[in-house]
Amino acid sequence: MTSLNQSPVEAGGGWSVSFGSDVGSTDTLFAVVTGYNNSNVTISSSGPTFDGTAGTGSQAPSKILEKLYSYDGTVTDYVAVWMLPPPSGGWPSSAGPLAVTVTNSLAFANVGIIAFDVAGLGTSPTVDQLITADGFTTSPSSGTTAAIQFANEFVLGVLVQDQALTVNPGSPWSTFTGTGGDYNSIASYVLPSSSGSTYTYSATVSPAARWAAGVVTVYAPSGTTHTATAALTVSPSFSAVPQRGKYRTGALTVVPAFSAARVQGHVRTAALTVTPVFRAVPSGGAGRPAVTQVPDSDEAREFKRWLLWDL
Questions:
Q1: Rounded distance, CA 13 to CA 34, Å?
Q2: What is the pLDDT of residue 158?
């Protein structure tokens, strides 16, 4: 069951923050990164670590959301979400810090990092749905995701904008606003209990703002390998057809039917091989080798009488 293990924490004006207590060894960490600049630059982020370390391979950090409001003559806005799965062996017993390297953003109180500590996403958390948007309006909105496919996902909404936030995102979002006075950086989460819902992250600002927003949903795959073994025994019943009272022929057709199980809405492939083995037995007794043609001569007829005497 997915749960928020610790309340979000934020570092305004910087991109390094510690939690209030040790994170769980198998928890997944999320770093919401926001940035701002009043120059024509490209803001980016890289290299997230927790307590100075990060996983590698399938446990390596991944940037699962990124949106840049490009410079329009006034400002550049940036938002990204980094996901850090628990490394092999688990996280160390530590509260952090959780740190991300950010390039080309100014450091001031209204942008920075907001961190989430989430339990229940397993060792290979996977993105399900993602949507982003940007604009220059009084109503920033991420747009609406497609329906989530799984129950117990972690749904994260993010927004950065350069004016005063007047209306927070409403239900079903649990919203964390940054410590900056204008709340330029906000992030919210939902812990759904069933599949099928869609999500939109929207708010109201005044006056019109440059903004970048997004929603990303993450689930825990329920196993990655499925092995099934099955056996099929076919006992057909058929009769041989006499040809001129002497030769027997038989035919067997096997048409098995089976269905592949569905796991989390996905059909798993299956293969079936049937190799029937059968032997036609003459009605008069023990089987004899099949004779397809016998020369019509005295010796041949004598041989045929001997061979097929019991038919």
A1: 10
A2: 95
